[in-house]
Amino acid sequence: MKKIAKIPITFESRLSSEEFAEKVKNIIAEQEENVTYSEKGRQIFYWESLGDDKYSLKFYHSYKSDMCDTAFYGQVNKGLSGCQLDGHIKKPGGIWAIFWVIIAVAFLILAAFSVAILLSETPETGLIPVFLLTLVPVAFVEVNLLMFDKKRLKAINEYLREFTTAENYDVLSEELEEDERG
User: Fold this and answer.
1) Residue 128: partners with Cβ closer than 8 Å, 6 or more residues away
2) Phi, psi for 33 (deg, rounded to 5)
3) Could you give the strand order of the β-sheet that contains 82-90, starting from the edge strand earlier in sequence?
4) What is the mean pLDDT of the chain?
5) Would you say 46 and 62 are in contact if contact means Cβ atoms under 8 Å apart?
6) Most buried among 56, 59, 115, 167, by the most CB within 10 A?
7) Are strands 82-90 and 6-13 parallel, antiparallel or unpaired?
8) Which pairs from 21-24 meet CB under 8 Å and 24+ separation?
């Protein structure tokens, strides 16, 4: 299983949507009280309310020492006997910003290289393959930037399943275990 950029996921819970909202509200209030507490180096799940029953959960494997690279964005839907949290585990905006900055820098270098070759009286065409070879590590970095670390996927999935007291079949955990076996 190679998961890149976005994974759809659903958690069915016996909690009502109001109970779920209250539970998240309490955690957000607790997070705000502990702002001055040094969380550096700790693994932390950081909740945010996005309004209209929409929430985000950011996973820091070493809070304040790294950038959040795995997050859940979802919406709570009312059900007949509880609620359902539908959403995606995906890369947050900071990762996408880095991704596009790297692409932009590569294109600027390509443009400068092209202009230098075109304006040169004796173009050095032997450097074209060298430049193209430098794009290989850039492509490797870009793909790895958007791929999910399996341990982080497992951690955020387990946390959300426990938090929501999810009762539905856990497809993501099954896929992760199958990858470990195969």
Assistant:
1) 117
2) -65, -30
3) 6-13, 82-90, 70-79, 54-60, 44-51
4) 83
5) no
6) 59
7) antiparallel
8) 21/53, 21/76, 23/163, 24/49, 24/55
| pTM reported for the whole predicted model | 0.79
Mean pLDDT of 156-165: 89
C-alpha separations of 166 from 6, 7, 25, 84, 159 in Å = 21, 17, 19, 9, 10
Tokens of 49: 């309310």
**For residue 116, pLDDT beyond 60:** yes
Distances (CA, A) of 32 to 5, 57, 135: 29, 15, 44
Tell me the chain's radius of gyration from C-alpha atoms: 22
